[in-house]
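User: My advisor, Dr. K., asked me to get a structural model of this assembly before our group meeting. I'm new to this, so sorry if the format is off. These are the inputs:
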Amino acid sequence: MQYQLNQKLADLVPYDPIQGTYQIRLDANESYISLPGELRRQIGEAVAALPLNRYPDPLSQKVNEAFAAYYGLNPDCITSGNGSDELISIITSCFLESDDTIVTLEHDFSMYAFYSSLYELKVEVCPKRQDLTIDVDRLIAFCKETHAKAVVFSNPCNPTSLGLGRTEIRRLLNALDCLVILDEAYMDFWDQSMLPELSAYDNCIILKTCSKALGLAGIRLGFAVAGKTITRALRAAKSPYNTDMIAQTIGTILLQQPDYLHACTAQITERAKQLYRGITQLQSKYPNILEQVYNSRTNFVYVRTSYDAQLYQMLLDASIAIRRFRGFLRICTGSSEENAALLEALTQSLQTLSAKEESL
Ligand SMILES: *Cc1c(COP(=O)(O)O)cnc(C)c1O
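Assistant: The format is fine. Below is the predicted structure of the whole assembly, which you can bring to the meeting.
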């Protein structure tokens, strides 16, 4: 007899976004800034002194306090997670019951629908406008029509890089009484966060991560911010030691460096703007290939192109990894040098492609 996986597991494949090693990695929306020596030394000393034979603080109070101080929040409304990814998993598995409806949007972060399906929720996908912006009235109506128990989306959005302003978010929150999960993974790069006014909404969870602007994708640390009732439930439902001692320690040290973090965020934002300008210039030169460049509120640029497969491969051949979606490319900002190399390789690829086109 051979063990039979159930149907929902049988078709799954392990997450492995990219095979091979490439000189320049612009595919995962990470920060390109590596930690300076002084902070590395401080972290090294702190980690060496940890009592690793003991379990970590299950409520991760120190790092919650550091996170709260950095964003000007009350630590009582914070739950830490093993990346915000784990928090998405906890929320979708515990706040809804099987066959409940959760609304996601398209295009948006794929993990929402992934976990929701795994937990046997009904996933209803609300389309975005043709230009990939969110139509709030349509979304409100959609949630009501589908009797949604929850709606989840990223703002600014991965992968579109577009943002929905606060006025619109308020309108959405005021119109819905289901759970609203606002993933602000990229909000450090924009200024429309709902964190300052979250206490006005008892049905909203805001997700944050240390993986993007804060430059700590390697330690797996994310946070859920919500009111008292939801926070209590989240803390009760998570596994007790979900964030380990090393992540808590490194997260605390970093979050206690607001000047450093603000400087990094400002620099990344500036590099992303440079990248956006560079790609926009190429778009005006090759409009038949790069059909549209979206207005970026994030650390990456989203491009519509029917040549996604060719351009993706040509850049890989130049040892530059970006992210490909059907009909689109997502390019994360690197350092100035990395962006220059990307733009150079992209220019050459576009020249080659357009020469091919003309010879047809
Ligand atoms: C990267 C990303 C996350 C994942 O963050 P982790 O804390 O690394 O798990 C969550 N949401 C969105 C929209 C992201 O792009």
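One thing worth pointing out at the meeting: The longest helix spans residues 258-285.

User: Perfect, thanks a lot.
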